[in-house]
Amino acid sequence: MPTPPSTLPRRVAAIGLLLGLAAAPLIGQARPGVIGFSPEGAVAAPRQIVVRFGTPMVALGGTAPAPISGACGAGGAGHWLDPQRYAIDLAAALPGGRACSFSLAPGL
Fold it and tell me: Which of 59, 91, 105, 106 has the fewest CB atoms within 10 Å distance of its CB?
């Protein structure tokens, strides 16, 4: 027997409420995965490395240890641009053809 039209909106609302309650424990438990990294691929003379996370990693204006480590042989200084982006300003532009690799700090 089909559902009477007058109770259908109530059932849809009840199902939505149940789905919302079921998902509630998952809210706020997002992993801080990397969603962006630059430069990537072949780039002429990069001066900065930026990693972007999917969730805030520090408070706005806050500080925290470097979330990445690696070596390019150029040295540089790292700092947080905002709660989700960390940058390393290289001491000098990298020469063409240099391969670099970075990894997340332990625990991330």
Answer: 106
φ, ψ at 8 (rounded to 5°): -60, -45
pTM for this predicted structure: 0.67
Cα separations in angstroms, 19 against 7, 9, 26, 27, 106: 19, 15, 12, 13, 35
Instruction: Write out pLDDT tens, residues 72-103.
Output: 777 889 999 999 999 999 888 888 778 888 89
17 forms beta bridges with: none
- 8 Å CB contact between 52 and 85: yes
Q: Quick count: other Cβ atoms within 10 Å of Cβ 51?
A: 22
